[in-house]
Structure formats: C-alpha cells, structure tokens
Amino acid sequence: MKALSIIPSQKTILLTEREDPQIQGPYEVKVKTLEVGICGTDREEIMGTHAELPLGEKELIIGHEMMALVIETGSNVSTIKPGDLVVATVRRPCDHPECYSCKGGHPDTCSSGLYLERGIKGLHGFQAQFVVDHEMFFVKLPQSMRSYGVLCEPAAIVEKAIDSAIEIQSCRGLPDWDDPSTCLRGKKTLVAGLGSIGLLTAIILRLHGADVWGYDIVSQDALRIQLFKEIGGSYIDGKKITPSNIASHYESFDLIVEAVGVASVTINLISALGPNGICAMTGVTEANRMLEINVGSLIYNLVLNNQVIFGTVNAGKKHWKRAVRDLEKANTVFNRIAERLITHRFSPHEFQRAFFESSEDEIKKVFVWGE
Ligand SMILES: [Zn+2]
Ligand SMILES: [Zn+2]
C-alpha cells in the first residue's frame, strides 16, 4: 500500500510503498482509508519536532485525523461490520500499573506520559491506504457524514474542552451551569484563534445556544471569518484590539476557549474572564517563552472572581460520540457548515503542495485515499 511517511531526523516526508497491515487478532478491524486531514501537528512532525518513531522503525507514517470504510473484521468483532463508515481515535493506553486513567479506558488523561498516539508518538498513523486496529478504537458514523466525517478528530478535542468546562462549573456548584443540555444558552463566550479548532468550537457553542465572540488577526474578508459571522459569531479584529484590551471593549466573558497557541496572546486573554468565569486552553505554545506580565492582578482577579483556568488535550470516546452528533446537527442547522470547512482536497501524490503551500482561504485540508 501507499503511505505518507516521515523520517524525523532528516525533516523529510515521502510517499512510500509498504506492506498492507493484516488482521492479527479476533477483535481487530481492517479499514480502507477514505480521507485524512492535516493540521499544525503534522507540519511540526515533518520539521522534526513532536514525532516519535515506532520501536525499531526508521520511518513513521503520519496522520491522525481520519475517516475510513470497514472492509474486514476479526472473528469476535461485534460493534462494527464491513461497509460501516468509521473514524479511529488517536491515543492508545499505556501499561503502567499505576496509571488509572489508561486502565479505566481513558488514555486522554494518561498520567504516566507513556501513552502512544497513532501518527504522532510511537505508532504509525493514518495517512495510508489501509489501517488495522482494535474495534474499541473505532467510532461509527452515519453514512450521511461521508463528506465531512474527517472533522471528527478536531471536533472531539473541542467537545472535551467544552464538556470539561461545563463539568467543572457544575461540580463547583454554580447553579447556572447545572444542566449540561441547556447551560450554554445565552452564555457569553470568547473563542480566541479562528482556525479549524476555533471555528469548530464556535460552531458547537452556537449550536448549544451560546453567544460567541471570536478573536483573530485575519481580515474580515477571510473565508473563516465569513463562515464565523454566518453562524452568528461577532468578530473581534486582533489587529485593532490587543488581548488585554478585549474586556474594556466587550466586557467580560463566562467562558473563554483558547485555540491560538501563542503564549503572549493566551496569557493576556485571561483578563477578559468575568466573575466565576472559566478558561479552557487548547493551544500548544512554544516552550521556554519568557514574558513580562502583571502576575499580581492576574492572581488577584483569579481569587476574588472565583475563576478557573485549565488545559485540555486529546479526547475520550464520549467526546468522539458527541463530535459525531454535533457535527451532523451543525451541518444541517448552519447550511452545510461542516462540509464547507474542508476547503482543499489533495491526492497523496500532491503532498509537497498540501503541506508546504498555503492560501488565505484554507481552513481544513485533507488527503483523499479512497472512494
Ligand atoms: Zn490534528
Ligand atoms: Zn497511562
């Protein structure tokens, strides 16, 4: 089969020929890859950071945002069958005896750091014609999601961020966050960074009735800002307003979801948090970034306003299921919005162009592996 592989030490990506993976056990499933999205993580892996080779291998097949068709199942597989449309989760549990998260089936909160991730950390990814994995790592999609199901991975990350915020707020006894099915209605929310993660966050928040402001530094004409406004979002132009001035123009927010990954922006967003506010951080900032900030007022507000700041990564199976449900609903409610987030489709041969050329109007780029 064909696959897109990287050699981290050489900062190269190649279209390679490899043996097809085969079903080895009774619970395994073989799928034919249909589409695989690309994101900043893939680019960082090509440039030599993040990626970890599988044991004893010289190359790593990249890709972690996939959608596929089931073609073969092991003898004990009961939850999916050939012909099903599926997506595969990314993280695989560690076997550390004291990692209760992984033991309990929640590798997204692995505490040992020894988890593996397909296409990123120690396991081959999905930019390949075929994939084999245990049935427990697949989530079934309705066939109606064929043209945008590849968005499930980034959407699952968003679902975890929003769900965690709701759970934290409800657990600490805030009555207006009590009912997870209605608590977002009318909440004042800010999404910082309107890339694919930010846009998906805005879409899911709007779907659940929140009022959404979005912060970015691109022009109003950019496609992603157009789409953001179309779902009812209010755009804050970062070229005119700095993160620390957001509150003086728009007052404070109940929930902030950060999807920027730039330390100087992220840290200053906290000043826009209101009383009892909560801020979810999803962006990975550069390590060792030194900044001069007013720590005194940051902690002062945090304490006197009962604020929470938390970080969130990856997603659990329940978030994947919510991603499927919400993407399908949002695509209907907001005039095919999910389909329109996929702006570019490439054949695997076009990998140079897909990874190294960019345009103003790109939101999500995907490789097409099969029909
Ligand atoms: Zn990604
Ligand atoms: Zn673990």
Task: Describe the structure in your own words.
The chain is of the alpha/beta class. 27% of the residues lie in helices and 26% in strands. The protein has eleven helices and 19 strands. Strands 3, 5, 6, 10, 11, 18 and 19 form a seven-stranded mixed sheet that branches. Strand 1 (2-7) and strand 2 form a beta hairpin. The longest helix has 20 residues, at 152-171. The protein is globular. The chain starts with a strand and ends with a strand. The mean pLDDT is 96. Bound molecules: zinc ion (2 copies). One zinc ion binds at residues 39, 41, 64-65, 154.
Radius of gyration: 21 Å
Shape annotation:
globular
The stretches of 5 or more residues where confidence is low (pLDDT under 50) are: none
User: Span between N and C termini?
Assistant: 15 Å
Largest sheet: number of strands, sense, barrel closure: 7 strands, mixed
